[in-house]
Amino acid sequence: MRHVTLALRTLFKTPFVTGVAVLSLALGIGANAAIFSLFDQILLRPLPVPDPDRLVNLAAPGPKPGSQSCGQAGDCDVVFSYPMFRDLERTQTEFSGLAAHLAFGVSLSYRDEPTTGEGMYVSGSYFPTLGVRAALGRLLAAADDQSIGTSFVTVLGYGYWQSHFGSDPGVLGRPLIVNGRVMTIVGVAPRDFQGTTLGVRPLVFVPISMRGVLEPGFRGFENRQNYWAYLFGRLKPGVSLAQASAGLNALYHPIITDVEAPLQKGISDQMMAEFRVKRAVLTPGQQGQSSMLRDAKTPLVMLFSVTAIVLLIACANIANLLLARGAGRAMEMGVRLALGARRSQLITQLLTESVLLASLGALAGLIVANWTLTGIAALLPPDVDQALRFALQPVVLVFAGALALATGIAFGMFPALHSTRAEVVAAIRANAGQISGARGAARFRASLVTVQIALATTLLIAAGLFVKSLVNVTRVDLGMRVDQVVTFSIAPERSGYDSTRALLLYDRVEDALAAIPGVNGVTSSVIPLLAGYTWGSDVYVQGFPSGPDVDKSARFSEVGAGHFATLGVQVRAGREFTKADHRGAPRVAVVNQAFVKKFNLGQGAVGKFMSIGPGPLNTQIVGVIPDVKYSDVKEAVPPLVYTPWRQATHVGTMNFYVRSARSEALLRALPAVLKQIDPGLPMNGLKTMPEQIRENVSVDRLISILSASPPCSPPWACTGSWPTAWPSVRARSACAWPWVPTAGGCARWSCVRCPPRCWWAVGSAWRGRSVWGAPPVRSSTGSRDTIPWCSLSPSCCSCWWRSARYTFRPDGPRSWIRCGRCATSNGARPPPHVHTTGTRYGSNERSEVTIVSPSSSACTMRRRSNGSLW
Description:
By secondary structure, the protein is an alpha+beta fold. The protein is 38% helix and 19% strand. It has 24 helices and 30 strands. Strands 24, 25, 26, 27, 28, 29 and 30 form a seven-stranded antiparallel β-sheet that branches. The chain has a six-stranded mixed barrel with strand order 4-5-10-7-9-8. It has a six-stranded mixed β-barrel with strand order 15-16-21-18-20-19. A hairpin with a 6-residue loop joins strand 19 (609-612) and strand 20. The radius of gyration is 38 Å and the shape is globular.
């Protein structure tokens, strides 16, 4: 405690230095703590289940002829068909449990209070495999999904139970409407459990066998060519990952070769060979399954690298400030050592000061971290904002504390060792008055300056590249005009509508939107624009070969009448869709230029026939449009086929786009219009299209803005170097007159101004030859000061005479002093370390200057006047 008290007293004796140090560390530690908070949640934190290291994820890379559906839990390489899952679950012996899951959108209603969000289809083995227990009631078990479409039970997410049911323990057994179906609440999930897919916070958990009931038209339970289920398992005790992989593939491979290979039709021999050698791949699953783990890794590592550089710059700043202050405290350290203090005691005291300084910086850094997390949350899309916690968690506080301790020791160790070196007493005698300290300290400070400038330059370059990338993204030609467009979506089937009623509802909504005053256009689309969603299929085009090894893939969307005109897209050939393109009318399609190029349609695309999927070529191309961005702003436009949704038989979700010059007023009017049509129908994702575009490039915006923000960026890089360079500049100007003359044939006086404190002499070029410094006179007591010698090489300084204009008192007359080191009769350079007495030439002949303690680079001088030492 005595060390801490003394450290506090010492730090607050120099509030300016302490303030600069705390600010530097607050920015460095705060930025690192904020990024670590996201780094921990996304890349490090395991699932809150018992023994998460025993969990493994299953993947099925390789050819997947047929239908594939993948989402937030991972790409299509990791999905399995439902029959394959049941085969493996029934026959495997390496896992204590094998489970399947899939996230889906839900519309919930409890006592006429609608809620929309995400749910999770889970197998009956899901919760037993994870080993979690219900917070209330029971969780889903194997008996809840033994048969398809018969288990109308659900488990509430803990957060949903708290927010909408007030943590009421009496909810068990009550009905809850899930996507228009009445289900019975049987339990509540554990408090900290948010499912196994990072980025998805399920409101409810539903048996996976109920997907066909909640999603009318789904037929994927018996189809081995429909891949959509994500699988994971828990290793049995004593079973390694390699053993589990070998045992699982011993079951998986025969199913592939004997059961599924004969089902594959219309594929080439090469693809069949690749299909037959497919293997199941097992990877550690302690963090669950999520594409966010892959997508966020690179941006987070980049941001962590930037903030680490900021912290290194802060450490360089503080180390140099402490080193300069340590040089000023050399007399104090010498006295302490002379009085019997051990060096270890002094090092402990100095390290206590540096760690205390780092702790103060860490406390201030928590404020910076909170501000940074708030800013990050504002830059990310709402779904990510809801999936992650942008607050200071206990692990972040521990990280900040550990970082403060590490940085305090890192930047305090060298100054502490240097300030308490064994030869400090001799150094005081030889270098009294030197602010710079020993040459070793000067070299160390110079190294810090060099390193910091290099790091700051790296920050500047990185920030410039990130900002340039963001500027390039904002200049991407979307191929459409969406600056005055508002969008939202509805999912009537989740509210009990069947397919026929849903299609009629979409027509009513379009008509109601078009009747709003100021609306210039209304259209709709099944696939939301620039939202990251895609829908692909093989297409067959008239005149294009359709062999087994031919790439026939294209992206697909169903849109409403006047779609391209509403979005400002000019049709290049043919026409676009009208309301006459309904079910029963000839099937039509519009394609983009990328489609025309890929399928070699040339100028005669309009009028050609095609089909989506194998079958008769019954769809006629009636229009060609330019390439328009589809799902992502940065990705190249793929071959696209548009068809009118009015010719479809089933559309579960629809996205609407409304153009108006008064988009802000439209945002307020649209909910009321939809409520007039159906008060119980939820509206999802109401926003302007510019907001949608910003969400699409949110990662680019996040990296660019954070890299250019004050905690870790060019402003800090530019202003953070002066604390590091200042001690050396101050040391070199300790002997400076207010105006510094130049040497070596340059102009006689430069315009470099010294600090105001330097009211002493600095020397001029005697006969215009060279420069050297003379010491300050601050008091009337005896003192010794150092005269630095000229650094010019012999080729630049031919006379070898050193002289200086010197003033004994601030108001005294100017005079000349000549050092005997170079005062030889013939102007030749004397041998090293030969020093004589220099005589002051001026009005006061009783003053003299005596050179003592000679060295190769400096002389220490004693001054005398009237027989008394000054």
